[in-house]
Each structure stands twice: as C-alpha cells, then as structure tokens.
Input
Amino acid sequence: MPPTSGAGSVVVTTPSDREIRMTRDFDAPARLVFAAWTTPELLLCWFGARGWRLVECEVDLRVGGAWRFVSRGPGGAEMTQHGVYREIVAGRRLVQTESYGDAPAGAETLVTTEFVEDQGRTTVVTTVTAPSREARDAVLRTPMERGVGEGHDRLARVLTEIRAYGVDGRRRAADPTDASGTTELRRERRNG
Output
C-alpha cells in the first residue's frame, strides 16, 4: 500500500487491516540504534512527542522481561505504556507487546521493530499489529504519527551526539574502527 503520510521523515503505511508500519532511516549503525531503543538512559533522552518526556523507564531486556514507560506532558498529564518482550535479536529485531494505562484484556498490540543496516545507516521498520481493524483505525486517529516523528527526530540528534561524544559526553577521537560508539555503550552498561 502507498504511504498514508510522512510526518517529518517517518513514513506511515497500513499494509493490512490490522497493521500500522512506520519506517525511518538513521545515520548510525544498527547496534547503536538498537541500544538507543533499549537502554533506559538513552530512551530518556529521546522518547516521545514534543512537550512530553519519560519520567519513568524500566527495561528488562530479555525474552519474557517486562518494560514500562511513564511519560509526562503538558499540564502534568501522564501516559503509561507497558508490555513484555517476546523476541530479541540484538541489533536486528525486537518484538514486544504494548498496552496503554489500564487497557482491558485483549487490547494490547504486538510491536515488531526491525533494524536494517546498510553501509553504516540503519532503517528502522516498526510494525504495530492491533487486535482489530477498529483498534488500528482508532490509533491512526490519534496524534501518534506526529509524536513518533518528533521522537524520532530527537533520536536522530541523540545518535549524532553519541557518535561524536560517546555516551559519557566526552569528545571522541576519530577512530574509523569504532565509529558506532558501541565501546562507550558497553563501558556505560558495565559501570551503570
């Protein structure tokens, strides 16, 4: 199907009557993008729409592990998202359930995110599978597309900063053998 739209540089399509697919390219290797997608300290830097920020971010990155995000927005409004990881292939694929707030049983979506690297750039393809067409259409009527686009724009800036400065904020020497910043990410995980 052709794109429904493209807020910023996120392209949103509806490949089936229950799916929403969002695609975005990032100028960073897949390992680094995956780390930014799954590391609480990095998620706190970029996740969410403009005016919203994560105030709680819990990630138990293992199959069967839970994740939970609480975002705070304008006027102190809060939104909670949570789910369970079903599949993890580091640097390549992440599959998780997702529910909002106290959503009723059966209202959760399945979110599959693929990280496809080509010559140091990564295309992230996120497919949200809703329980029904009606549920998918309700999501499409929300400002989800704008929010995802704004969050992804922040992520692009964070990735640029990590590549230039590393996770610890210190200017990195130009080292073509470690352009991804993964050494700093590994060091940060060991120390944190």
